Amino acid sequence: MFLNKRKVILLISIFSLVFFLILNQVKSQKLRVVDGDTIHLNGEKIRFTGIDTPELKQTCFNDGIIDPCGVTAKVILIEKIGYNKVECISEGKDQYKRTLAECFVNNESLSSYLVRSGYAFAYRRYSKKFVPDEDYARINTIGMWSMKFDYPWEYRKNN
After folding, report:
1. DSSP reduced 3-state for 1
2. What is the DSSP string of 79-128?
3. Quick check: helix, strand or coil at residue 155?
4. Distance of alpha carbon 59 from alpha carbon 149, whole angstroms
5. 86, 39 Cβ separation under 8 angstroms
6. Global pTM?
7. pLDDT tens digits for 49-65?
8. CATH code for the domain defined by 30-158
9. pLDDT digits (tens, 9 = 90+) for 14-46
């Protein structure tokens, strides 16, 4: 079978378009960051297991200056995810019907990253997995560890 130049260009264009659509469909995700430890991913509400971040309305004090540490935790998560694909390993559901999961970007745990950044805490009540990350942030006075703060679970109890 003989293909002229126009047919070859047409076939290459069609294959390129199909490849692009398939690649785009595989890579696309519908993602919304709710707060520092909760995301909506493709219609599913996911709560990160083993960590707790400050509430969005929660503030900290940094040398007497109010710091919106709850918002900062969310911003750090948004910046870390960027335009990367988020992959989560489900660990079940919680009492609020949220999926409990550890989520990753480029094979790096978002939970570990947040705790090491000092804007999340190892939620010892449920897991000890991120205690070494918390120890690192605390010892190096990173993030909230350089401020006066309430633990998120204390803040929720009192507000």
Report:
1. coil
2. HHHTTSPEEEEEEEE-TTSPEEEEEEETTEEHHHHHHHTTSSEE-TTT--
3. helix
4. 7
5. yes
6. 0.81
7. 999 999 999 999 999 99
8. 2.40.50.90
9. 544 444 444 444 457 899 999 999 999 999 999
